[in-house]
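We close this part of the discussion by returning to an individual protein. Part of our work consisted of pairing the sequence of a single chain with a tokenised description of its backbone. No coordinates are needed to read the tokens, only the vocabulary itself. The amino acid sequence and the backbone structure tokens for this protein are reproduced below:
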Amino acid sequence: MKLPLLILSLIALLILSCQKNSFITSKGAVVSFSSDTLFFDTVFTSTGSITESVKIINDNDQKLKLSDVRLMGGAQSWFAINIDGTPGPELGDIELEARDSVYIFVAVRIDPNAASLPFIVQDSIAVSFNGNKQYIQLQAYGQNANFLRSQVIATNTTWNNTLPYVILGGLQIDTNATLTIPKGCRVYLHADAPLLVDGTLLVQGVDSDRVSFQGDRLDDPYSNFPGSWPGILFRGASINNILQYAIIKNAYQGIVTELPSLNASPKVVLNECIVDNIYDAAVLGDQSSIQATNCLISNSGKNIEIGYGGNYQFTHCTVASYSNDYFAHTQPVLFVSNYEFQGNTPIISDLAASFTNCIFWGDFGNVDDEVVVSRQGNGPFSVNFSNCLWKVKNAPTGVTTFNIIANSDPLFDSVNTSRNFYDFHLKAGSPAIDKGAPTGTTIDLDGKPRPVGLPDLGCYEYR
């Protein structure tokens, strides 16, 4: 009996030895990486080279052959790879023993003063084996900027406008903290970077030197893509926010404010602001309060959406959308309601909204009514339109109107959807000229004076 047992043991050892020396070819084979993203987070101040490393680990009980390891950007990439002493950008037939690993060394060389660079330089390494392909992401800072990653502003802070600010992973303004952004400051936000305001945001642009918020991809065609970054969210505890001469563009949602103000002031004041090319709602109020004057809210999935009541005043605003290569204009440019649904049940809140000297217009879409007002229940509900121009087939009901111009083209200066060019100044002969009511608003979106007696409708005064 001992001899057969010895033979079986030798056979088992031989089988195990053969398994370890043979290559696994199944698609079920697995590899892991010591990191799935390499981020070169040194802030560059001069041209230089930085090297990081990552391990590819064979997690199988048999040998594995990596058929290809490739830097996707090739020889033109800002990155360079070296695999266990062999330079890339590509290497094939790499053999890994069971439970063994191989190092990839990654270098990046960037001139931070090259204005043509994006702020975040990206590439990836593709690892192919047994018909599978996995990726290691590479990211590095490009141009000189102030880079903030997943930062919380906990104390009163004032930025400067010497270099742009690039936000990655999000930026939060904590309760009781104020962030002040001066004129001329440029803020670029990554795709994963919302601006969350629990405290106070003060934007202090001027007519000749505005403050801009946009995505950090400046290369074509991404520079004009809506939805490039999440947007600005003013949350429940936030108070006393004032945005002056700000440009917010290319976000998923532009300005979102939720819950009532905790004091007598509007939660968000928008003076001479542009909110443009927003994928979803450009301005969204949810049981909150907004005061907007001389604002252009344009070419967005939903320009202004007010839900679940609140308190809102819009004065001398132009709200317009046109179907183009980025949007099919399918939603009204203004939607106002005093409710939101929880399941199938409408939850109602008091609503007071006024719109004075405004233009509501859209074209090249399938929207008959650019202004829609919807009411549920019998709670306090006051919606007033005074000296406005709108495009509607069915005028909203349950609202107060005075001096309304219906369905007359406002004659914007230039609209060219094929070139994605829009100038919302008024042309000579516009029905919006001299049709406004005195409101005490002395300037327009350009910072130019308005007449005391008969201002024009919309955000721009005709010259």
